[in-house]
Specification:
This protein has seven helices and 39 strands. By secondary structure, it is mainly beta. α2 runs antiparallel to α3. The radius of gyration is 45 Å and the shape is rod-shaped.
């Protein structure tokens, strides 16, 4: 109903952002010249406007070019009925130093004190003609370019349809807004949001700014409701953090922080689904359509067969109202964002240590958690709380995170909606089990006072679902596989294998669900008792009463049989091979002997 002129002693002063078609309250009405002339003053906005683009009588465009401030204009003579001889229109843009309309003062009881400073209005003068005004006084409405906005990017003030600049204006205005000081505005975020809004996107009919704001603020509403309506124009979020207002326009923001298990001070609480009453898979709603006389009009609904099938084939609509949006393509983009954001449903409550202190609400963080299957998964911080625990001994930050992705803000009309389910987690398939790692060695072991060779298989790896390993071995070339066991440990043995023989060993992983991996196979030749014994060390002799007492360090080989002692009378150029046997067998575990002293 904002295009309808009306009479009210308690009308609020509206704020116009962007370009809209509007009318307003009749603030002055007087007939003169024996009731032949009617003087009507209609207030359009409670602030200075940029321009009045055109004027309508009963939805007939009677003036199609912009009005000049405080300049009388005659309607076009090409309309039916023809108002050119019987109507005059003067626009006043509502400057702070605005003077009273001179023509109105000269013809009516309107005085020079009636300046209407800071109020944009239209003065219409009608001369009675029963043929022209057969249906009575026409409803006057105008297409208005609204408030001039300050732009912190270049410190200029001019007309703009940028939502970020309009929201900043409402926050800082002390007359009809919140009256926030410049120190309470995070201008870096507003500059970034303004740049996002000004980005050019391609539509079916050409190009347009990514987000624009075109609407009228009803100042009788609560500031919270006003801001919520304004934020719909850019799919944005307004955050009050660290004593400052921060604006985030609807875009994907790259991660500023990486969090993993090392940053936790407790367990993660996870919610994987919205409640049924908050779940929807389609969006419909209304926007303000310039092609339909700036009336609320349904935009084409956004639906998804993929989401609908995930919700048991039951279509559930979200009704989205966009009071500051005048582009059908923008309305559809905003509806698609709302739908896609609703399908990013995983929410985490993360008790973090102070490494998360610099995370702010609205920031994107990447979470890595092997148990949950998150590998640098993107989440948006929606809540931040500083906490003290253990009587102040432990400080930390509690974060509430909601999953997000760049796909939410893609303009691609053919985006595959299945990505919103497939990106939930990267947990492995329990049926897809990698073969374990396998290494094979052998060793000697004394059993019943006999040294025998033992084959040792060591397995490693598997997957998060691996419960046990199964190992088998056989002697090559034609032996049968022998099962070494199935256990959760990683060491398996085959006793009494043949020294010098080749063995084939294979191992596989088995999950708790009974799925088995492929075999990992390794060949190994048994060394066993074929390996030479260790060298003798610590060999020394002592002459005692004509005898030579020889001692040495015992050799540790389990298959050691005896020591052989050789002798040569020469003291140079002697090798073990050209020496003669002095003692042919010194049985283990002996490591000393007495022989006659000699050179």
């Amino acid at each position: 109903g904002r295009t309808i002129q009306f009479r009210s002693p308690t009308a609020t002063r509206p704020i116009i952002y962007g370009e809209v078609k509007t009318s307003g309250p009749i603030v002055f009405l007087e007939a003169t010249n024996d009731n032949q002339d009617l003087h009507v003053v209609i207030a359009l906005a409670g602030h200075e406007i940029s321009s009045i683009q055109n004027v309508f009588f009963n939805e007939i465009e009677v003036i199609s070019s912009p009005l000049s401030d405080d300049t009388e204009t005659t309607p076009s003579s090409s309309t039916t009925p023809d108002y050119s001889a019987d109507a005059r229109i003067t626009g006043h843009f509502g400057t702070d130093d605005q003077t009273a309309d001179a023509e109105l003062v000269s013809r009516t009881d309107f005085t020079t004190n009636h300046r209407l400073r800071g109020i944009a209005y239209v003065y219409a003068r009608y001369t009675f003609d029963e043929d022209v005004f057969a249906s009575g006084i026409p409803n006057l409405s105008c297409t208005v370019r609204g408030k001039k906005l300050f732009d912190p990017r270049d410190d200029t003030t001019s007309f703009s349809q940028n939502p970020a600049l309009a929201i900043r204006d409402y926050l800082t205005n002390s007359t009809y807004g919140l009256g926030a000081t410049d120190a309470e505005i995070d201008d870096d975020s507003f500059i970034a949001a303004a740049n996002v809004c000004d980005e050019t996107v391609t539509t079916l009919s050409g190009t347009e700014a990514r987000y624009t704001i075109n609407g009228v603020v009803d100042t009788s509403k609560a500031p919270r409701a006003i801001l919520q309506d304004m934020l719909t124009s850019c799919g944005g979020q307004l955050i009050y953090s660290n004593g400052r207002f921060k604006l985030l326009a609807g875009e994907f923001r790259s991660a500023t922080k990486q969090l993993d298990e090392d940053d936790l001070r407790g367990g993660i609480t996870i919610q994987t689904k919205n409640s049924g009453q908050d779940q929807f898979n389609a969006v419909k709603g209304v926007f303000v359509n310039p092609d339909q006389n700036f009336q609320p009009t349904d935009f084409p609904s956004v639906t998804s067969a993929t989401f609908e099938s995930e919700d048991n084939n039951e279509r559930r609509f979200l009704d989205l109202t966009l009071p500051f949006t005048t582009s059908a393509s923008t309305a559809q983009r905003l509806a698609k964002q709302a739908l896609f954001r609703s399908r990013e449903q995983i929410t985490l409550s993360m008790p973090c240590n102070l490494n998360a202190f610099d995370v702010d609400v609205g920031d994107t963080v990447q979470v890595t958690n092997s148990r949950l299957g998150f590998a640098a998964k993107d989440f948006e911080c929606v809540r931040w709380n500083f906490v003290f625990e253990d009587n102040g001994q432990v400080m930390g930050v509690d974060l509430t995170l909601r999953e997000t992705s760049s796909t939410v803000y893609d303009f691609d009309p053919d985006v595959d909606e299945s990505v919103f389910s497939s990106n939930n987690t990267t947990l492995p398939n329990p049926a897809d089990i990698p073969a374990p790692g396998l290494s094979v060695t052998d060793e000697l072991r004394v059993i019943n006072e006999e040294a025998i060779s033992v084959l040792i298989a060591t397995v490693s790896g598997g997957s998060a679902f691996t419960n046990t390993f199964e190992v088998e071995a056989k002697e090559l070339p034609s032996g049968e596989f022998v099962n070494l066991g199935r256990a959760s440990g990683n060491r398996f043995e085959l006793i009494n294998v043949v020294d010098g023989a080749d063995y084939e060993v294979r191992a596989r992983a088995v999950t708790t669900f009974g799925f088995k991996s492929a075999f990992r196979t390794v060949q190994h030749q048994i060394v066993g008792k074929t390996a030479p014994p260790e060298d003798v060390t610590g060999f020394s002799g002592n002459v005692v009463a004509g005898s030579l007492v020889l001692n040495w360090t015992p050799v540790g080989d389990l298959d050691l049989s005896h020591y052989l002692l050789r002798y040569a009378s020469a003291t140079t150029g002697v090798t073990y091979q050209n020496a003669t046997t002095l003692i042919d067998k010194i049985p283990r575990p002996g490591n000393s002997i007495v022989v006659p002293a000699r050179t």
